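Quick question, first post here. What does this chain look like in 3D?
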Amino acid sequence: MAPKPKSIILDLLSTLRGRSAPVRLFIAAGEMFGIDQNSTRVALARLCAGGLVERDERGAYRLGRAAEPVQSQVRSWRHTETRLTPWHGGWIAASFTEAPRGRERRIQRRSMQFAGMRPLKPGLWIRPDNLVDGLAAMRPMLEQLGLRALVFRIDGLDPAAQERARGLWPVEEIRAGYRECIAELEASAARLPELPIAEAMAESFLIGGQAIRRIVLDPLLPEPILAAAERRALLAAMNQYDLAGRACWARFMRGFGLPATAAPMDQRIGDRISATPAALPNPIQPGAAS
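> Answer (accepted):
Ran it through. Tokens below.
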């Protein structure tokens, strides 16, 4: 399924580490997925109106302040394991005094998923206290996501409640997701060198994006609840795939004056990018679009 124009814009900007990009980059990238220029411009305007994207003095675009809380987490997917600390059985909790409605309920559920929290009872969400800095990290993160909650630590749950808390996460489903994602990454990595460059770019964008989403939304459960080996295997597979994906996109990004990492994972991809420029979606020439 083709990504939405907003996703393409945000995903590309998230790789630029604060740099800005011209609108013609987003138009050219969107056209690879069959998205017309007008749809891309409308999406960009809506992202600007929502503060997720900002326009600089040169008329180029960068991530806006409203996008930073989530995008900083997305960019840090490579360092997921460094966020963890040994678990001693305690929990971080977020309590909401009023039941959210409509859009607020959707925001709460998405934010709680992002934080790896599950409802122990109505209005009370918890997660294992195994993140570096614990409460000190969780409070500002939830505030940045726009949630007003009482955030605190729970210790000493009775055995029945402790067992119920540990069973809140669908462990087997999560493990199956790891294995499925690893298989998709490995199969795609084997295909990329043989695909036309435009197809390799599109596939690496989609497959890599799905894997990063899984990593970023992973609840990061501690060893007593979920063994970490398969999560680490997914991180390793995605790190390798990221190199191949960056190689696919390197020449395209350089065509807009933006840096890109041509990766050594499979030099055949980089060689084909240099050797077959006609096969690559060409950047819109300066002046063709503002």
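Strands lie at 53-55, 61-63, 91-95, 118-121, 124-128, 150-154.
DSSP finds eleven helices and six strands in the chain.
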